[in-house]
Write a structure and sequence with these properties.
Layout: E1 2-5, E2 10-15, H1 21-29, E3 32-37, H2 40-49, E4 54-58, E5 60-61, E6 64-65, H3 66-76, E7 81-85, H4 90-97, E8 104-106, H5 112-128
Parallel strand pairs: 2-3, 2-4, 4-7, 7-8
Antiparallel strand pairs: 1-3, 5-6
Protein name: Response regulatory domain-containing protein
InterPro entries: CheY-like_superfamily (IPR011006), Sig_transdc_resp-reg_receiver (IPR001789)
GO biological process, one term: phosphorelay signal transduction system
Length: about 140
């Protein structure tokens, strides 16, 4: 399944095996269009064709774990910011994802508060990487 929601300049890939309406609604409210996929290979192909600014990844995508997916995504698009959906304890998750550069994790796809917090961090990164405005514009 591949569904695109929203229509802004910032793009997110949502690769999870759950209902994601609250998640995509939150992204849309923040001006981020979302492409929803449920298969790891399809998600990686999507990233090759059109690297997203942000990827939100479930703990399991068919035969591939979310952490393995993040490692593969990093090879394709090291600039993509990532959020993992995982109910693992923070310390254990930190050890497993060290070196993958994730923004953080939310416990479930409906954790709007946690997602908002990580989106704030994402927008800080995006704005820090914007070139300065030209004088007089």
């Amino acid at each position: 399944m591949n569904t695109t929601i929203g229509n802004s300049g910032l793009r997110a890939l949502v690769a999870v095996n759950e209902r994601v309406s609250k998640l995509t609604e939150t992204l849309s409210k923040r001006g981020i269009s979302a492409t929803v996929v449920t298969d790891a290979e399809e998600a990686l192909d999507e990233c090759l064709m059109n690297p997203p600014h942000l990827a939100i990844v479930g703990s399991s995508l068919g035969k591939m774990t979310g952490i393995h997916f993040l490692a593969e995504l990093l090879k394709i698009s090291w600039k993509t910011s990532t959020i993992l959906v995982s109910d693992e304890e923070e310390e254990a998750l930190h050890q497993k994802t060290e070196g993958l550069g994730i923004l953080g994790a939310i416990r479930e796809v409906n954790d709007v508060e946690g997602l908002e917090r990580l989106l704030d961090k994402f927008f800080e990164i995006v704005s820090a990487n914007q070139p300065p405005a030209s004088p007089g514009k």
